[in-house]
Amino acid sequence: MAYLMLWSQFVVVGVFLVAVVAKVRRRATFAGFVSSVDSLRLLPRRLSRPVAYAVLAAEMVVIPLAAIPATAPFGLAGSALMLAAFTVAVVFTRAGKGTTCWCFGPSTTRLGWPHVLRNLTLMAICGAGLWAGRDGDGVSMDPLGAIAALVAAATVVLLATRLDDLVVLLAAR
Fold it and tell me: Contact, 167 vs 114, CB < 8 A?
């Protein structure tokens, strides 16, 4: 169970770290993210920038929360709640109707059901981590097991953050 918890922590930290870095690495990248929030048309245009900053701040908060063992349940739960909100936003934009996903930087891939599936999968990973950590047992871990959890998590992070590339690749004829 401890390895499942560790794996889920690594996944959440990795996914949200990539998301944050992708949004703040350049001013134009963050402006693109703000524009993508606006294009969802779920809120008045004047709220796009504050909501984009709130999303960025929330993503920045869950990283250390999920990374620190004592606060990991809060980080995992917060991540799951954010992912649920992102999923609702994708569904309410009638997935695939012109809005692009700038979750992990510039993208031309339209939001769609693959994004819903990605978010649901990440929420399940958060849930698995919460379930695995429910005992709160401070079991010592074998370093090789921790490395295996890290490698497995890195694979999931890569797939989750490069989803748009995979969608384009698989859709190519």
Answer: yes
> Which pair of structure tokens corresponds to residue 162?
């490069």
Looking up tokens 């990248």 gives 29
Q: What is the pLDDT of residues 44-87, one digit of tens each?
A: 889 989 999 999 999 999 999 999 999 999 999 999 999 999 99
Q: Which residues contact 51 (CB under 8 A, 6 or more apart)?
A: 37, 43
Domain ranges of the chain: 2-171
Strand partners, 101: none
How much of the chain, in percent, has pLDDT values that exceed 90? Answer: 55
Residue 50 neighbours by CB distance under 10 Å:
12
Rounded CA-CA distance 5/72 in Å is 9
Residue 9 to residue 76: CA distance in whole angstroms = 7
For residues 22-42, one letter each, b for 16 or more C-beta atoms within 10 angstroms of the residue's C-beta and e for the rest, the string is bbeeeeebbebbbebbbbeee
Which residue type occupies 165? D
pTM of this structure: 0.89
Amino acid 1: pLDDT: 81
Does residue 99 sit in helix, strand or coil? coil
